[in-house]
Amino acid sequence: MQEEKQIYAEADDTGAAPNVPEGLAATMRKQGYHFVGRHSATKICNYTASSMSEEGESCYKHRFYGIRSWRCIQATTAIGCNLGCSFCWRIIPEEKGYKWNELNALKEWDDPKEIVQGLINEHRRIVSGYKGHEDVSLKRWEEANDPAHVALSLTGEPLFYPKMNQLIEEFHRNGISTFLVTNGTMVNAIKKLTVLPTQLYVSVQAPNKEIYGKVTRPKNLSATWDNFLEFLRIFSTIKTRRVFRLTLVKGLNMLDAEGYADLVKIGRPDYVEVKGFAYVGGARSESRGLSYNQMPRKEEILGFAKEIAEKTGYIFTDYHEHSFVALLSASKEAASRRIIKFSK
After folding, report:
1. Is 344 inside any structural domain?
2. pLDDT tens for residues 81-129?
3. CB proximity list for 29: less than 8 A, separation 6 or greater
């Protein structure tokens, strides 16, 4: 299938006409994605839904950093990605036969104010369906309609969006904290980031170049790995809260703790999240070669996290049982200030 012959999706009932091939858009809508404009999307997080009940489970960001899961928008400003990480739960277009490149297909990027308002509107539209459910707290439902956080981590690579400074500024103007997650390859984009998110994440997919190639499956391994290392050096200088996110798969990248420790020493994050891989969504595709048995157990995650801590001087700080994720802090001071004070 040639890129120039793609049939792009038509507008849905909200008027959004995403710059996505029609078949791919249809699949994503069935999976609960709501498109905003041509290249942004939102989808309710399971923790957002469950935490609308006061007895429900909140996400690890609630436990670690104090965000209110029921007030969080899960979103992205770019649906496409330049990597094909084997553990990723999202759809990888090439695996479905779509030779589609969002960067080449877009002639113009949407306005930041329109994206922010569109994401808020879609979040409210999704949340509206939870009102009146016997398990849902009316107070929390009302708060969910006034989102206070956005996690730019849903799918794709958010830093593809060239107006990220204006977008973050607009979220903050609306009293919404920003948690931006990047795959660590967009060196030019991170250099241009002058309006900083509340918390900046970089996904650290492997401890060395060889394993990085197996996990992320880049088109040019040497160039992408070099970009990643340069990104980490820049990341270490950014004046906001910074986090490494490790997603560990047994038998693939859950090895060489010393290699991860070396990367921590380059990027010098405030926090390191050591998370077990989940065998869900796209990760279950036969073409990726993964299995249920490659999900680490609690004791394996804790052991690996503590090994990284020993090699870096970081402090084991917390563990979120439901998400299978451990938290390391750079210092006692970082551990004591991990709960963020939000503007609303």
Report:
1. no
2. 999 999 999 888 888 888 888 888 788 999 999 999 999 999 999 999 9
3. 12, 35
Distance CA 45, CA 170 (A): 22
Per the structure, how many domains does the chain have?
1
In a domain, 340, yes or no: no
**Dist. CA 275–CA 320, nearest whole Å:** 9
Q: Give this prediction's pTM.
A: 0.95
Strand partners, 202: 182, 244
Classify residue 26: in a domain, yes or no: yes
What is the distance, to the nearest Å, from the Cα of residue 90 to the centroid of all Cα atoms in its chain?
11
The domain in which residue 281 lies consists of 3-335
pLDDT tens readout for residues 73-85: 999 999 999 999 9
What does the pLDDT look like over 195-244, one tens digit per residue? 999 999 999 999 999 999 999 999 999 999 999 999 999 999 999 999 99
Ordered DSSP codes for 68-130: -GGGEEEEES-S--S---TT--S--GGGGT----HHHH-SSPPPHHHHHHHHHHHHHHHHGGG
CA 206 to chain CA centroid, nearest Å: 17
Contacts of 220 (CB under 8 A, 6+ apart): none
